[in-house]
Structure formats: structure tokens, C-alpha cells
Design a protein that fits this description.
Helix content: 10-25%
CATH superfamily of one domain: Toll/interleukin-1 receptor homology (TIR) domain
CATH topology of one domain: Rossmann fold
Distance between the termini: 117 Å
Shape: elongated
Number of strands: 34
CATH architecture of one domain: 3-Layer(aba) Sandwich
Radius of gyration: 54 Å
């Protein structure tokens, strides 16, 4: 359940309509707002909290709360009663007599009630009361017996805020010995019109937004239990020495137009732990030596003072400012100006060996001091956001860090983060680095390392999507406002124009090379396809008459077998037998394409002699010629092929066309080492085949 800080009213709850009346209810809460009710209606028995706002109750007495009581016992279960702007003009002395369980009462913005009426009505309050709030009721003067009716209660908290109270006599509080928390915020109290007697048990005292122009002499009063003192927004022009508050732990002196912080102002507060000295209306000009002197201070908030930490002119002493504040654990110097170099800055903080959190936001700081973490060995949190930091030496700044876990460098002028920005050991131990809202350059060289590291360490750089959306590219323009962690490799490192041209040229060259290789590898198939195309286009010319043939036979053989052809075959068939053979290296026409020579020779030869060997099977030209020969045989339906086998062909070399020939045709086998009879038989086979 959430509560409004000023009215203690529940909010952000699913209110529903109450039974019996037009008010709204939620569980044990009831709210009657803006209904102009002249009475308090009846509620379900479970209601313990009632908030009446903007109604017209007029006279309030015992009968006003009759609907809140049990008809038989005349007792009520109500514990919290809030009455705000209900135009109450009379408050009777028996008003709360039947609210026996009431622990909290809050009356606000009722301008027609007198202090005396309040005083008399308090007599009817339950002994269980622990909290009393009377705000904005224009109590310019408080009767001496104001709290007399609370003597039988155990009230712990009294709030009298914004009542224009001008004088306060501590004797008022003598009946409330149980009082622990007292708020007098927003009145018109002055040092000379206020005494703090009978507040020996008070632990929290709020005197903010009054007219105190100098700090009271607390030694005149017994405030031995006081732990928290809120003195912000008064009229102080200087702070005198605070003392006689031996148990004070928290002191707020924000919002005062003082010009000088004097030495030892707080040194007499032996248990002071938290000190607020912020928003000094930009009037602070000088900090004396040991101004923050305190043997117990742990948290100092010196924020938004526009103070110039400067040596020219000198307005503070860097070696002495924190010399006697060695227990300090949290230091916030945000929204001031540092006009000193790194060395002076580091010297200023050197005594703070117990510091755990250093906050310097919006101070126009241009550097992260080298050696800072060496003199602050316990530092766990460093916040330097909204400054002008653009670069630093990673090893000199963070190389000695062993304890830092949180680093905030957001809203600076950081353009690039690379492997030199943070040492590896530091990156291993740090838990979170805030680098949002910096003008990052996202060129390949400047962003590649940071991009890759951020992806691998997402929990350390942007554990939430909202944080990732603040780490953006500022340049180049093509990537402006792009989330760095979402960049692709091609976006970060696009190829230069000349590289693109080279890639295009290389791609075209590679394509041409591939085509050339394919053409080369398939050259025989291509030649055959060309031959078949011409054959289909021009038709096959069959020569009927023997006289029209130019050759008796065209010899197909491998170059490696030309010895057999030239030394054995040609002499025997041409010189002895009288046949006219076509031998390619002798009879092909010069200047004519080899393919055309082959086709012409096959067409003008009556027979085709194929000299088979292992060399033949490895020759692409022979393979090509054999395909054309087979094609002629199919078209002419004539077996004009004479096959000579000059050596045993290995099985691995037998192709499909060759297998077809060997399995379907008779071939003559030449035996170079054979007898004369075997050789004569071979030549007889050849002669017979050529005569057919």
C-alpha cells in the first residue's frame, strides 16, 4: 500500500463503492472525497482507516462519529482518521470520545478552528494515540495547555506544519514525555522566539523553512536524545559552531545563502554521520581550513553550490579541506566547479582512505585524475556523469583499482572506448559501467573493440534495454542515433569505394576464369555439340560412289602411337597394298580448324581405322573423333569401322563408347612380338575389312 507523503492517504489502489454510502472503499480503507457530506456515513465493520476530504462537516462533536461505532458497545474500530478541507468550524471537547482504537489523527486546512478548541478536543483522544498531525490551520499562537489532553497518551509523533507559528515555548511539550518525532516545518519561528525545553526524548526535529537567522544555542536546552535535525531553508547567513548535540547523527543545512564555511563548525558533534550542505544560493565564496572537521562524519553532500574550487584566487586549501574527515565514506561534490589540475584534485582527496562513494556530477570536469584510485583504496562507486571528460589513460587511472564496482561516465564527451581505456583486470572486476549519452564515433577503427566487448559483457554495460538505448552513435551521419550494441559488422566496417571497385573487378575476373575453366574442361563436349548443331543444320552428306571418296581410310590414333602408324601401318597399307590413308599430321589442311579437318576427313574417307591402345583412351581428341565416327555409323546404317588393338587396355581406361566397340565389333589384334604367320594373319584381316 502506498501513501501520500503529506496526507497519508492511500493511492494507486483499486477503489470500489462502499456498502451503505456513496464513498469509496478498498479493504479496510474508506475515502469520502469531494462529496460535500454534512455527516460521516455508516461503513462496513472492517473499516479502520477513514479519509474525509472536501466535505461540509461544520460542527464536529461526539455524535459526528456515531455511525463509526457499534450500536451496542458504542465503540469504534477506527484506527486512522484524516480530516482535510471539510469546513469544520467547531470542534467539541468530546469529539473523539468513542474512537477508542484511534492511533493516528490528521487534521488539515481547517481555517476556522482555534488553538483552544484543539486543546479541549485532545482530552477525548484515545490513550492509544501515537501520531498527531495538525497542519495549515493557522495556529499563530499555541495555548500553554495545548497538549495537556495528551498526557495520558503515548504519542510518539507530532506534526505542526505550515501553521504560521511565530513563537514556541518548549514547556508546551511537558505533558508528552513519550514524544520522539517533532516536525515544525513551514512556520515563522525565529531563534529568539523559540526554546527547546522539555524535548529531551525527541530523536527527530524538523525546523526547516522557518525564519531562524542564526543557529540556536543548544547548550541552553537538553536535547540529549536528538539524532536527526533538519534545519534547511531558513535565513542563516553564517553557521556558528554546532555543539551540545552529543547524539546528533544527521544534520541538514541546505538552502542557505552563506558566504564562508568556517573551521570546526561541526567538530563538536561527536556522533555526526550525515551532513547536508547544498544549494547555498551560489553565495559560497570561501571554505576555511578544517571546515569539515569531524571525527565521525561518514556522508557529506556538498551539492549545487556553484562553488569554484580554485587556487587563483585561492578559496580553499586542498591539502587541509578533508584532512580531518578521514572516516568519510560518501562524498558528493556535484554541481560545483573544479578549476584545479589533476594533481591538486588528487591531493584534496588523499586523506579519504575510507571513501567508498565519490560523486562529482555536472562540475565541468575535463579529466579523470590519474592516481585517484590509488589514494582511494576503498572506493567502490565513482560517478562522474554530465562533465566534459573525453579521454583518459586507462592504466594510469584504473590500473590500481581493486575495489571499484560501479563507474558512471554518462553524459560526457567520450568519442571512443577501446582496449586502452580500461585494463583487463579492471574490466574483470567492474560490475557496471554507465557510458550512456556520449557522442560516440562509430567508424570501424573507433567502435569495433567497444562493440564486441559490450556484446560479450552486456550485463556490465547495459543490463536493461533502456540503458542500451542511451549508448548511441553520434557519427558518421549514416549511423547517427543507432544503438551501438545492435550494429552489424557491415554497418561498422563498410568497404571503401576503391575496395568495392576491386571486389567488382575481382568478381568479374573470377567469373570469367570460372567460365574459361568450365569451357576448357568441357571443350570436347562443346566441340561435339557444335558438330551436332552443324549436322542438324546442314544435314549429313552421304557419299554413294567410291570415286567420290578422297581416302580409303581415315586413321584415328593417339600421338603416342604414331610410331606404329608411320612405321608399320602406313608403309604396309599404302606402299605394299596401295591404299590411300588420311593421316592428320600429314593430310589435314593448314589454317583450317582441327574440328573441321576431322569432320571433313571422316566424311571423305570410305573407312575409319581406329588404333586402340591405353594412350588412345587418355586422349580427348581421340575420344572426340570416336564419337563422330559412331555418329556416322548410326546415320549411314553402315559398319565402316576397322578396329586395331595394339596393346591390352586396362579396365580403368575403358569408357562407355569404347566398351560398346569392344563388345560388339571384331577387332584385329597387333602383336609386335608375334610370328610372321601371326602378323600375316593380322594384315589379311585388315585387307578384308577395307575391301568390304
Amino acid at each position: 500500500m502506498e501513501y501520500n507523503e503529506s496526507l497519508n492517504a492511500p493511492k494507486n489502489v483499486p477503489w470500489g463503492k462502499c456498502i451503505y454510502n456513496p464513498c469509496r472503499c478498498y479493504r479496510n480503507f474508506a475515502l469520502c472525497s469531494g462529496l460535500n457530506l454534512t455527516f460521516i456515513p455508516r461503513f462496513p465493520d472492517n473499516i479502520t482507516y477513514l479519509y474525509m476530504y472536501k466535505n461540509c462537516l461544520g460542527r464536529v462533536n461526539r455524535s459526528t462519529f456515531l455511525n463509526l461505532t457499534n450500536p451496542l458497545t458504542r465503540k469504534s474500530k477506527l484506527e486512522v482518521l484524516i480530516l482535510v478541507k471539510n469546513r469544520i468550524n467547531t470542534l467539541s471537547n468530546d469529539s473523539f470520545a468513542d474512537l477508542s482504537d484511534l492511533t493516528h489523527i490528521h487534521i488539515e486546512d481547517e481555517q476556522h478552528l482555534s488553538g483552544q478548541q484543539f486543546s479541549e478536543s485532545f482530552n477525548s483522544l484515545s490513550p492509544k494515540l501515537v501520531k498527531l498531525i495538525i497542519n495549515r490551520v493557522n495556529l499563530t499562537s499555541i495555548p500553554a495547555t495545548f497538549f495537556q489532553g495528551l498526557e495520558s497518551t503515548n504519542v510518539l509523533n507530532i506534526t505542526l506544519e505550515s501553521n504560521a507559528i511565530k513563537t514556541l515555548d518548549g514547556n508546551l511539550f511537558s505533558p508528552v514525555t513519550s514524544l520522539r518525532n517533532l516536525s515544525l516545518h513551514g512556520n515563522r519561528l525565529k531563534t529568539e522566539t523559540t526554546n527547546f525545553s522539555h524535548l529531551s526524548n525527541v530523536e527527530y526535529l524538523n525546523l526547516s523553512s522557518n525564519y531562524f537567522n542564526v543557529s540556536p544555542n543548544f547548550c541552553n536546552f537538553n536535547l540529549s536524545s536528538l539524532k536527526i535535525l533538519d534545519f534547511q531553508s531558513n535565513k542563516f547567513s553564517t553557521f556558528k559552531e554546532f555543539k551540545c548535540l552529543d547524539n546528533l547523527e544527521y544534520l541538514n543545512l541546505n538552502n542557505h545563502a552563506i558566504r564562508t564555511l568556517f573551521s570546526n563548525t561541526f567538530s563538536m558533534l561527536p556522533k555526526l554521520k550525515t551532513l547536508h550542505l547544498s544549494q547555498m544560493a551560489e553565495q559560497l565564496e570561501f571554505i576555511q581550513n578544517n571546515a569539515f572537521n569531524s571525527s565521525s562524519l561518514k556522508r557529506l553532500y556538498f551539492i549545487d553550490n556553484a562553488f569554484h574550487f580554485s587556487l587563483f584566487p585561492r578559496n580553499f586549501y586542498p591539502l587541509l579541506i578533508f584532512e580531518n574527515t578521514r572516516k568519510l565514506q560518501v562524498l558528493d561534490l556535484s554541481m560545483n566547479y573544479f578549476k584545479v589540475n589533476e594533481t591538486i584534485f588528487t591531493q584534496m582527496l588523499t586523506p579519504l582512505t575510507n571513501l567508498k562513494s565519490l560523486i562529482i556530477v555536472e562540475c565541468v570536469l575535463r579529466y579523470i585524475p590519474r592516481g585517484l584510485l590509488r589514494v582511494l583504496p576503498q572506493l567502490r562507486e565513482l560517478i562522474l556523469s554530465r562533465n566534459s571528460i573525453d579521454e583518459w589513460n586507462g592504466y594510469e587511472v584504473f590500473g590500481k583499482s581493486k575495489t571499484l564496482r560501479y563507474l558512471d561516465l554518462s553524459d560526457n564527451r567520450i568519442v571512443t572506448v577501446d582496449e586502452k581505456s580500461f585494463p583487463p583486470d579492471f574490466l574483470q572486476s567492474i560490475r557496471f559501467i554507465n557510458l550512456g549519452n556520449n557522442p560516440f564515433s562509430c567508424t570501424c577503427k573507433e567502435v569495433q573493440w567497444f562493440h564486441d566487448w559490450a556484446i560479450d559483457n552486456r550485463q556490465k554495460i547495459c543490463p536493461k534495454t533502456e540503458i542500451c538505448k542511451t549508448i548511441l552513435c553520434a557519427s558518421p551521419s549514416s549511423l547517427k542515433n543507432k544503438i551501438i550494441i545492435e550494429l552489424t559488422e557491415s554497418e561498422m566496417c563498410p568497404y571503401p569505394e576503391y575496395v568495392k571497385v576491386l571486389i567488382i573487378i575481382g568478381s568479374v575476373s573470377l567469373f570469367v576464369l570460372v567460365i574459361a575453366l568450365v569451357v576448357y574442361k568441357a571443350r570436347w563436349h562443346i566441340r561435339y555439340l557444335i558438330y551436332m548443331y552443324r549436322l542438324r543444320r546442314d544435314g549429313y552428306e552421304t557419299i554413294e560412289d567410291k570415286r567420290d571418296f578422297n581416302y580409303d581410310a581415315f586413321v584415328v590414333y593417339a600421338e603416342e602411337d604414331q610410331g606404329f602408324v608411320h612405321n608399320t601401318l602406313v608403309p604396309t597399307l599404302e606402299e605394299r597394298e596401295g591404299y590411300h590413308l588420311c593421316i592428320h599430321n600429314r593430310d589435314f589442311q593448314v589454317g583450317k580448324l582441327i574440328v573441321d579437318n576431322i569432320i571433313t576427313s571422316i566424311q571423305t574417307s570410305r573407312k575409319i581405322i581406329v588404333v586402340l591402345s591405353n594412350n588412345f583412351t587418355k586422349s580427348k581428341w581421340c575420344d572426340f573423333e570416336l564419337i563422330i565416327v559412331q555418329n556416322r555409323m548410326v546415320l549411314e546404317q553402315n559398319n565402316n569401322l576397322v578396329v586395331i588393338l595394339i596393346d591390352k587396355i586396362e579396365p580403368k581406361n575403358i569408357t562407355t563408347p569404347l566398351r560398346l566397340i569392344l563388345s560388339t565389333m571384331t577387332y584385329a589384334k597387333w602383336q609386335a612380338q608375334g610370328t610372321e604367320d601371326e602378323k600375316e594373319s593380322f594384315w589379311n584381316q585388315i585387307r578384308d575389312s577395307l575391301r568390304k
